[in-house]
């Protein structure tokens, strides 16, 4: 049976056939959808006669959105990329679809290694139907992978989702992920992400696949194209992270690049109570065949937040350059970010209580007027790829960051249910330099009926930090109150180090070499990934007070990986993996008889299995996992690595278009945790601190019928209760938060203008969001956001 679309008058067919490959562009607006539906829309809009056998597109992956000026040839190439199909244009202008031939002696590897389909981004996987998530993402050493072809759980969020949610920080983006929850860092305002029950600190977030480059603590999104979330341990894939967190998952940010069409947009935004800002985004490709590209993002924002008396000032300048040659691809990213927080609401510690105190009102602030924090980061990265031939590609990336942090933090220690507390103070200036590099070779070949995707890689990260501090002892804290805050004099503090010129207090060095092979069997229906990474970790510590070396450690460890994907049908895949996590080993505390002894790196182990579905416009995954992480414990006065935290979970993810114009992003997790080998067995069998029994999200985005350009969205987040302590005596209740939003896109004097409005925490619910880290983090209050973006 043949499907025929005759939409071109016969007298116009021949001129079109002669000009189809020319640079003349047609204005197209084809949404992301199934391939056959996309081809139908394309034929109508391009006014071409298109013939194809319906069986060719049956079961094909969804086609990406096609919006902008394209020639017929360019449009077809984009829609058909990764489908295994090509096209032929006859003399009368008729376009016919054909199976793509396989060259003699070569093998087509389906779409396991994904070629980008975003306009101007051949390095990125295409967007999934609905445009909120991508079809795949970067899987460390393995490079970009399609979600159906990888034996791991991944999620990749697009710049479209970031814009429509008006997400200004990484944390605001990841509220859309049902497997991720958040808290603050210890003694500062850094965003900490809890994935599968284990924390991931901002130090350990990668930038274009490279650790140690992004700003610390709070990461802005104005220059981010994709947010890629890897769920599970990843020591083999990425190497050990700089600070050793991320046992339950990792995050990689992809920078913006100049696209095929020029980018010229300016946004003005407002957030309650009085925070206003602007964002300028400019991008352009130029030179022969548009090989050179430049992208610039500038942003500034200042004002009082929805938390009473909390003031925030933020600045960003980010630049991206790239070159796309026939065989050589180069890129450079440079950025500067500065943020100042005055009277930022702090975390809350409990002292001697038998019950967690009631949460204050959502917008209450119990920080002291003298508290502030200033974060300043300069960063840069250079990367390149070279196609040695059609099968092999070599790559290299180097980058670094210089960080200067300063701040006076107030801490509240609550000792009674009526809010009675004591106020402490921490002044902790810190400078840090970080340098990273990675290099490798990727290739594919065949041995008989078995295909191979081989990866060889080297990576390294070197950090040096200088710090000092003034901290308040318990005896020197001053009176305070959680529910009735009042200004406190600055408490007297004990000085450690030179706070005006901090000395070097530590260095870390992580180096590794890795090799992997993904073997394809039965025409790529079965994919087996095997790999091993040899990692060396070295740490040195110096006293802030004396400048003398206090600790030194250097050890190596090997981490393997095993992964299997069975593609039962074109839309159904089964997967399983066994992979490990790695963190620098602990040092025995001063209270132990073996004080100062350094231990080998922590090796956590993960086993996971699940199923993935891809119906073209709608997809999902369901997986089960178990992660076991060793922990240090002092028994009978001797410190050792004898304890363990075990997390077991069931994870569901759903995404895509339920029907044209209705987009879904949802999922949930059930988690069971258990502590083993605790001190004298006192907490054996208890749940781990900061890990809820369940968490789930329901996000919808809907184009309002009859009103072109108008869409509304909503996000429901529900999180179970969490224990505050390992003894499981103190806990916080489950909480629910609802966010609502709307946007309206229209033309203003032939310019695209988009208005967006979002209301976060609609009910202004006061809730303890997290106990991760052994302290309480309060959830954000009701916040109204409004923005206008003009493309000029």
Automatic annotation (TrEMBL):
CDD domains: ligand_gated_channel
Residues of the signal peptide: 1-25
Presence of the UniProt keyword Signal in the record: yes
GO cellular component terms given for this protein: cell outer membrane
Pfam families named in the record: Plug (PF07715), STN (PF07660), TonB_dep_Rec_b-barrel (PF00593)
GO biological process: siderophore transport
Membrane topology of this protein: Multi-pass membrane protein
Highest taxon above the source species: Bacteria
Motif range (TonB C-terminal box): 775-792
InterPro entries, per the entry: Beta-barrel_TonB, Beta-barrel_TonB_sf, Plug_dom, Plug_dom_sf, Secretin/TonB_short_N, TonB-dep_rcpt-like, TonB_rcpt_CS, TonB_sidphr_rcpt
Keywords for this protein: Cell outer membrane, Ion transport, Iron, Iron transport, Membrane, Receptor, Signal, TonB box, Transmembrane, Transmembrane beta strand, Transport
Compartment list: Cell outer membrane
Secretin/TonB short N-terminal domain boundaries: 48-100
Main location class: membrane
MF annotations from Gene Ontology: siderophore uptake transmembrane transporter activity; signaling receptor activity
PANTHER family, per database record: FCUA PROTEIN, FERRICHROME IRON RECEPTOR-RELATED
Family: Belongs to the TonB-dependent receptor family.
Name of the protein described by the UniProt record: Putative TonB-dependent receptor
Taxonomic classification: Bacteria, Pseudomonadati, Pseudomonadota, Gammaproteobacteria, Pseudomonadales
């Amino acid at each position: 049976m043949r499907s025929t679309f005759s939409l071109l008058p016969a007298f116009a067919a021949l001129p079109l056939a002669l000009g189809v490959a020319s640079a003349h562009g047609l204005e197209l607006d084809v949404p992301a959808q199934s391939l056959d539906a996309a081809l139908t829309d394309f034929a109508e809009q391009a006014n071409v006669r298109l013939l194809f056998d319906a069986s060719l597109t049956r079961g094909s992956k969804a086609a990406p959105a096609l919006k902008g000026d394209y020639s017929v040839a360019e449009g077809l190439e984009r829609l058909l990329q990764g489908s295994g199909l090509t096209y032929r244009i006859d003399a009368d202008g008729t376009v016919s679809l054909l199976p793509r031939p396989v060259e003699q002696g070569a093998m087509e590897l389906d779409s396991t290694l994904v070629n980008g389909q975003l306009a101007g981004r051949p390095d990125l996987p295409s967007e999934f139907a609905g445009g909120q998530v991508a079809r795949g993402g970067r899987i460390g050493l393995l490079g970009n992978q399609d979600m159906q072809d990888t034996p791991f759980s991944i999620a990749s969020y697009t710049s479209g989702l970031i814009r429509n949610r008006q997400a200004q920080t990484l944390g605001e983006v990841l509220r859309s992920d049902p497997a991720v929850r958040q808290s603050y860092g210890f003694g500062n305002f850094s965003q900490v992400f809890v994935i599968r029950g284990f924390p991931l600190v901002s130090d350990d977030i990668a930038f274009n696949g490279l650790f140690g480059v992004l700003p610390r603590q709070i990461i802005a999104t104005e220059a981010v194209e994709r947010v890629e979330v890897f769920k599970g341990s990843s020591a083999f894939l990425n190497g050990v992270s700089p600070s050793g967190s991320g046992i339950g998952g990792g995050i990689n940010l992809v920078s913006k690049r100049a696209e095929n069409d020029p980018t010229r947009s300016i946004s003005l935004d407002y957030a309650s109570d009085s925070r206003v800002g602007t964002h300028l985004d400019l991008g352009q490709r130029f030179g022969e065949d548009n090989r050179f590209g430049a992208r610039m993002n500038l942003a500034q924002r200042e004002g009082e937040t929805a938390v009473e008396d909390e003031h925030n000032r933020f600045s960003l300048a980010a630049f991206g350059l790239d070159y796309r040659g026939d065989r050589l691809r180069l890129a450079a990213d440079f950025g500067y970010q500065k943020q100042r927080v005055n009277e930022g609401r702090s975390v809350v510690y409990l002292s001697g209580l038998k019950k967690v105190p009631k949460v204050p009102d959502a917008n209450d602030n119990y920080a002291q007027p003298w508290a502030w924090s200033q974060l300043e980061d300069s960063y840069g990265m250079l990367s390149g790829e070279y196609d040695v031939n059609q099968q092999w590609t070599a790559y290299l990336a180097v980058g670094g960051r210089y960080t200067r942090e300063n701040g006076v933090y107030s801490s509240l220690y609550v000792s009674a249910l009526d809010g009675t507390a004591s106020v402490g103070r921490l002044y902790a200036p810190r400078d840090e330099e970080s340098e990273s590099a990675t290099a490798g070779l990727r290739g594919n070949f065949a041995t008989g009926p078995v295909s191979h995707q081989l990866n060889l890689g080297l990576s390294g990260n070197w950090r040096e930090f200088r710090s000092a501090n003034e901290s308040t002892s318990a005896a020197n804290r001053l009176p305070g109150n959680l529910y009735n805050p009042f200004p406190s004099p600055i408490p007297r503090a004990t000085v450690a180090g030179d706070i005006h010129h901090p000395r070097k207090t530590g260095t870390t060095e992580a180096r590794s070499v890795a090799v992997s092979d993904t073997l394809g069997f039965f025409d790529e229906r079965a994919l087996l990934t095997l790999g091993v990474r040899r990692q060396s970790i070295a740490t040195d510590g110096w006293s802030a007070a004396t400048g003398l070396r206090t600790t030194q450690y250097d050890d190596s460890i090997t981490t393997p990986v095993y992964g299997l994907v069975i593609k039962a049908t074109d839309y159904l895949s089964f997967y399983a993996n066994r992979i490990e996590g790695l963190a620098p080993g602990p040092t025995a505390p001063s209270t132990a008889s073996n004080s100062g002894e350094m231990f080998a790196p922590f090796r956590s182990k993960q086993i996971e299995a699940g199923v993935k579905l891809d119906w073209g416009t709608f997809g999902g995954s369901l997986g089960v996992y178990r992660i076991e992480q060793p922990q240090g414990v002092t028994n009978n006065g001797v410190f050792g690595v004898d304890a363990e935290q075990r997390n077991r979970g069931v994870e569901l993810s759903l995404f895509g278009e339920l029907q044209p114009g209705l987009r879904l992003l949802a999922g949930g997790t059930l988690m069971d945790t258990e502590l083993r080998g605790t001190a004298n067995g006192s907490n054996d069998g208890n749940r781990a601190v900061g890990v809820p029994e369940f968490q789930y999200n329901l996000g919808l985005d809907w184009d309002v019928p009859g009103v072109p350009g108008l869409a509304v969205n909503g996000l429901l987040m529900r999180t179970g209760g969490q224990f505050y302590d390992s003894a499981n005596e103190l806990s916080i209740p489950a909480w629910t938060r609802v966010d609502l939003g709307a946007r309206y896109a229209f033309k203003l004097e032939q310019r695209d203008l988009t208005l967006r409005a979002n209301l976060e925490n609609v009910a202004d619910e006061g809730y303890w969001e997290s106990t991760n880290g052994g302290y309480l983090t309060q959830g954000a209050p009701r916040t109204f956001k409004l923005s206008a973006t003009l493309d000029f």
